[in-house]
Automatic annotation (TrEMBL):
The lineage of its organism: Eukaryota, Viridiplantae, Streptophyta, Embryophyta, Tracheophyta. One of its GO terms (molecular function) is GTPase activator activity. InterPro entries: Rab-GAP-TBC_dom, Rab-GAP_TBC_sf. This is GTPase-activating protein GYP7. It comes from Triticum urartu (Red wild einkorn). It holds the Pfam family RabGAP-TBC. Gene3D superfamilies: putative rabgap domain of human tbc1 domain family member 14 like domains, Ypt/Rab-GAP domain of gyp1p, domain 3. Transmembrane segments: none annotated.
Length: 503
């Protein structure tokens, strides 16, 4: 009887992998995406969602969003705007956020204008009020952790030095690129780079304190904050840290994937003059081989990523973050809107870039547990290969399927994932979805269920043909462009239905 029961379970698992066991989304083609017409009907006269955003989130979860309205919709999914906000409230928030990012961009320029990095000694003061406003800062840091000590690349490996982290490309850079770049001060006021500062100067603002050398112009000197508040979080970041981030950001920006270009909202509007001016404003070099729109895109990447490094110095910049920002820049025309969407995205994704790898390890463990509960045979095979830690999906976790999916597929997956996370934030639970086709409750970890589903779809191949983790890793990397994103989401939601109470 035990052998019969085991055989039955094995057949059940095999049937699931072949699609015989149907999810609540089974045999479902992608539903119609949220259209401009549908979008406008969701709001009342004062610009509020009629039902607190429930219908909106259901629509996005089932079909995604039409490209033409993504820039308008994403701020709701990423928490820039509250689902219960009115149009008037959103206009106030938009103005406030624009001012905040412009302040931080000015700080970036001040730092850049201090020759050879002498102006930046410590990026160190973020007060407790900044944290209460949603700034992802900093837990009590008793010892400085140098960003230059450990940088991860998108293949899942790690480098022990900044040069290694940049995949050796830093060797091609001029010597002066390792130092803080000097920029024409006149560019600071005209640039509209998407960046974030904190609130007003006395409300959670990043204070850059410096021992100013003689060759840093007086108008660019920084003064240590004289705030009497004692509840400051401290982050001991050095000029070398920021210079390292600068160097790697520029390398990654120049090498950015070009598949976004087909979907860019303003590609045809970028003249060569405009592109070169934008590149100059952020000290971008070595772009002669790029078309104007790519130069402009790279310069936007530099501006936003530099600003984020100041906004969140605990994370700073690690390779892979440009992969997450690039699609947002392609969709969002305004830099300040793109930046705050990126900040919303990074509230969860930032844990992927922690130097202690706690966030990555937790997610890999969750993927492992999903596979273990769904397919014990496959899990035992992974144990035999010493691959049960699921390190072979490291890249999928790190950059959220960005390398395995096409640009449009990536946006579809992310939008459904963001809708799940927005529903969780809003406290919208299982009962809301119970009477519709989407029986899967919203989860913060939909990405991990999708990754597990991706592995389970290849269970037979893995069990019968692969005898090492390296072979499985190569299989995962070869998936690029071969995945059906909506089938993947079907299977992921099936796993959520069956396992969310067990994981």
């Amino acid at each position: 009887m035990e052998r019969l029961a085991a055989l039955t379970r094995e057949q059940s698992v095999w049937a699931w992998s072949r699609g015989a066991i149907k999810s609540p989304w089974s045999r479902r083609k992608r539903k119609q995406a949220l259209s401009c017409q549908n979008w406008s009907r969701l709001f009342s006269v004062n610009g509020k969602f009629r039902d607190g955003g429930r219908k909106f989130l259901k629509k996005v979860r089932s079909g995604g969003i039409e490209p033409g309205i993504r820039a308008e919709v994403w701020p709701f999914l990423l928490g820039v705007y509250d689902l219960n906000s009115s149009e008037e409230e959103r206009n106030i928030i938009k103005t406030k956020k624009r001012n905040e990012y412009e302040k931080l961009r000015r700080k970036c320029h001040q730092i850049l204008n201090c020759q050879k990095g002498f102006g930046l000694k410590v990026i160190n003061e973020i007060n407790n009020e900044g944290c209460s406003r949603g700034v992802p800062y900093l837990q009590d840091v008793s010892a400085s952790v140098s960003v230059s000590a450990k940088v991860f690349n998108c293949s899942g490996s790690e480098a022990n030095s900044p040069d290694n982290a940049a995949c050796g490309a830093a060797e091609c850079m001029d010597d002066d690129t390792s130092e803080l770049t000097c920029v024409d001060p006149s560019m600071a006021e005209s640039e509209s780079s998407g960046s974030a500062s904190s609130d007003e100067d006395d409300h959670g603002q990043i204070s850059v304190c410096a021992d100013i050398e003689e060759n840093c112009a007086p108008e660019h000197k920084f003064v240590r904050s004289t705030s009497s508040k004692s509840d400051f979080f401290r982050s001991n970041k050095t000029p070398e840290d920021f210079a390292t981030w600068q160097r790697i950001i520029r390398l990654d920006a120049i090498r950015a994937n070009t598949d976004w270009a087909l979907f860019s909202c303003n590609q045809d509007e970028i003249s060569e003059e405009k592109a070169l001016q934008r590149a100059l404003s952020v000290g971008l070099k070595d772009y002669d081989h790029l078309e104007p729109y790519m130069i402009y895109h790279a310069a936007r990447l530099v501006a936003l990523l530099e600003a984020y490094a100041l906004y969140d110095p605990e994370i700073g910049y690690c390779q892979g973050m440009s992969d997450l920002l690039s699609p947002i820049i392609a969709v969002m025309k305004e830099d300040h809107e793109a930046f705050w969407c990126f900040v919303g995205f990074m509230k969860k994704a930032r844990h992927n870039f922690r130097l202690d790898e706690v966030g990555i390890r937790r997610q890999l463990k969750t993927v492992s547990q999903i596979i273990k509960h769904k397919d014990s045979h496959l899990y035992r095979h992974l144990q035999k290969l010493q691959a049960e830690d699921c390190f072979f999906v490291y890249r999928m976790v790190l950059v959220l399927f960005r390398r395995e999916l096409t640009f449009e597929q990536t946006l579809c997956l992310w939008e459904v994932m963001w809708a799940d996370q927005a529903a969780v934030r809003a406290g919208i639970g299982r009962s809301t979805w119970g009477r519709i086709r989407l029986h899967a409750p919203p989860t913060d970890d939909l990405l991990l269920y999708a990754i597990a589903a991706c592995v389970l779809q290849r269970r037979r191949l893995i069990i019968e043909r692969y005898s090492s983790m390296d072979e499985i890793l190569r299989e995962c990397h070869s998936m690029a462009g071969q995945l059906d994103v909506w089938r993947l989401l079907d299977d992921a939601h099936d796993l959520v239905v069956n396992l969310h109470n067990k994981i």
